[in-house]
Please model this.
Amino acid sequence: MDRKGRVEDKVALITGVAKPDSIGFATARIFGREGAMLAIVDIAEAVHDCAELLRSEGFTVSSHTADLTRMDQVKVMVDEVLASYGRIDVLVNNAGMVVYGQEEDFTAFQDLSEEAWDFGIAINLKTQFNVTRCVVPGMITRKYGRIVNVSSVTGPVVANPQESAYCAAKAGVLGMTRGVALDVAGHGITVNAVGPGWIATGSQADGEDVGGMNTPLGRSAHPEEVGNVICFLGSDDASYITGQLIVVDGGNTIQEYKGPRELYY
Model:
């Protein structure tokens, strides 16, 4: 008997898929391998190149471009996905942190402009509200849905200097996750969040690999290690888990000492 994948024949909409070395792409590939039909979206045209790579592996993929901070564009994108597949079973809100081709803004709070604050909240929190708000009604109608929001350890658990807007937004993602989880629990929908720590993606900033080296596991995570957790939460294997933050950080946030291990343990 052929083994069925954990998301076999499910339609998964995954945001933030424009780079092959990203959490979004790794997640899409894992969902594809586990039997899902994929809809991937990003603000960058490179999302179509990622779709071609995924199709070359034999997966069913539609690709879409949209500025997810704009509700009008999100509505059009969701309608396109529904026109292609008829439904959305799993939503992975992964887009955030930076816009493709731009550098992340590191500015101390006392020097942060209102525009930079608004942008940080919009790209990391409003995007997830917009997409979730457009997808949830269909899930309620069908009495089924899995929503996985990519938050971070930064904000909900710890913080970094010069990232106050990012911290606030990612903490907001967790708060939204819990609130939505309660609102839709009676409709067969679960809503959870994943909190990555140091991840070896193409957007890992200079020096962040050193942070990964000083985790208990001694390295940054591979994007697939986050994608596997997202796929679990997006499957029926996690049918009794909702409103939770699953931390994927190699044990970094449970340790008090975070320097070189040879100086302490």
